[in-house]
Each structure stands twice: as structure tokens, then as C-alpha cells.
């Protein structure tokens, strides 16, 4: 296998529309747009939103609407979902929504699909009603979507208008080996959530590569790794900024979610040893430091994993510091 140079790896953004303490959801969306416009200028390939529900600190629940907002106010960057949680939706509705987006913004829309609910059980019940086992139908639902998008469905009893005949790349998202098997069997590109579920990353991408079957959509495996990135002028400043993402993940682990908190000088006053260990396990694939440090870490990561693309997510409290982090990361990747 030929080794990839860092400059050969595409770089992209995953945005959770994270709501920051002291700021409104409206500001969150405006900040996302500013970030996306900068990303477009800096050579980022995609700008994806992730579907979550019933989380006070994550405002990307109406994912397709946010994709339209960003795509409508940018020019070239690809915009998409990382992902749409398919069990929450009828495939026809997804086909119509993304068919509409791809009609408005041709050749710029990506459809990443996940099988998890993106929320807790009570909220999943509120979304799905009695259809609580819909995650088991994920492979069939992906197939249904492919049929709706295909030009051959012109004589189908049920058609996606718009959507039919439109080229919308479908991605399989995953945090386990199940999704890797499905992406490989269907010959689809694969994006792994190593930014919060690092445990199965290596195993999943190897399994995907080993079992990949070329398809009409893709001739050889294509892997995106999503990672946490906090870049600043110095390593010390980056470590300080990273205390916000550590608090964010602590909320995930303890179930005590709060809006994204300001950075702190010392995490020891906030977490105990068990919480620290759990958070640091989730943050295993985090790139925190100066541009030079991140470049060195990313070079090693690319060499070890041979990924095709890296997708950076950055939970940074201060909006200007977040923009700066994405500037520095682009510089490290070029």
C-alpha cells in the first residue's frame, strides 16, 4: 500500500451546532455560517451537520434545514449530514428532502446515514412511536433510498419528486464494525465517528477495506475519520481551550449536560479520576496543540491509518478561537 502524504488527504468540518453558555441558538447558527464560509476559503472539502435530539447543547436537530442554510449562503463547499439518523425517518421523506437540497445546490450535497437514534430512549420513542425497532431495518432502508434516487424508479408506484435521478452520494456512518460491514457490502464510502467512539476505529476500517465490493458508486474503499481538533498558537493555549470539550464529554458520561462551558485552568476541580479516565478514552483521537504539533500528530495518524479524509470537529467556547483553530488546522493539512 502506498503511503499517503498529509497534503493528499482531504480535510472537512463536522459541526454539531454546539450551543455555548451565554449565547443563543440563533447566534450558534450564524457562527456556523461564518465558520462554513471561512472553511470554504481555506480549502475544506465538506461541511457536515449531525442529527441529535433532546440535547440542550446541540442544536442540529433539523439537520436538512441547516444544510440548506449553509449551502444557500456558500458557493463551492460540499454540505451534508454526518449524519441523518435513518431510523428516525421514512426513506421517502429523506429522499424528497435531499432531492430538494440537491436540486437547489447541484453536486454539493452529501447524505451520510447512521443507524442510531441520536438521542435517549424516551426521545426515540417520541420520534418513532411504535416503530422502535426501525434500526434493524437500516440496510433495507438504505436500499429503499437508493431506489428512490435511481433513474430506474421512473415507473415505480412510489417516486421521490424531487430526488429521482439526482446524483446524491450516500455515505454510511458508523461507530462499530456493523456499519463497516454494510458499507463494504454495498460499495459505499464510510465515515467513522472516532471523535467520540474510538474503541472500534482500527478494527472497523480494516474490516471495511478487507470486505469492500466495488459498486456503481465507488470503485475502491474511501474512509473519513472524524476527530476532535483544538489548535492554537501554542500547545499551552490549545490545552486550555480543550478543557471546554472535556467538560462537554463529561456531561455525556454523567448525563448532566450543560451548554458548552468556558475553559478552565484546572480540570481537577471539576472531575474525579473515573470521570477523567472515561472522558480521555472517548477523546483518544483528539489533536490538541500548535499548528506544528498537530501537523506532526496528523502525519503519524495518516501514516498509521491510511485514511482518505479527516473531518475535524471543534468544541471551542470562544467563536474567534474556533475560527482560528480551523485556520491553523487547514494550514497544518496543506
Beta-strand percent range = 5-15%
Helix content range: 40-55%
> Major sheet: size, sense and barrel closure?
8 strands, parallel, barrel
Output the number of helix runs: 12
Q: Give the total of beta strands.
A: 9
**Order of helix and strand elements from N to C terminus:** EHEHEHEHHEHEHEHHHEHEH
Radius of gyration: 19 Å
Mean pLDDT: 94
* Apparent shape: globular
Strand arrangement, major sheet: 1-2-3-4-5-6-7-9
Low-confidence sequence ranges: none
Alpha-beta classification:
alpha/beta
Gap between N and C termini: 22 Å
Oligomer: single chain
Question: What's this, in brief?
Answer:
The chain has helices spanning 25-41, 63-72, 91-104, 121-128, 138-149, 177-186, 201-211, 235-241, 243-254, 273-282, 291-305, 319-333; strands spanning 10-15, 46-49, 78-85, 109-114, 170-174, 190-192, 223-231, 286-289, 309-313. It is of the alpha/beta class and 334 residues long.
Name a few traits of the molecule.
alpha/beta, 12 helices, eight-stranded parallel beta barrel, 334 residues, globular
What does this 3D model show about the protein?
With 334 residues, this protein is an alpha/beta fold. Helices cover 42% and strands 15% of the residues. The protein is built from twelve helices and nine strands. Strands 1-2-3-4-5-6-7-9 form an eight-stranded parallel β-barrel, surrounded by eight helices. Strand 6, helix 7 and strand 7 form a beta-alpha-beta unit. The longest helix is centred in the N-terminal third of the chain and has 17 residues. The chain is globular. The chain starts with 9 loop residues before the first strand and ends with a helix. The model has no long low-confidence stretch (mean pLDDT 94).
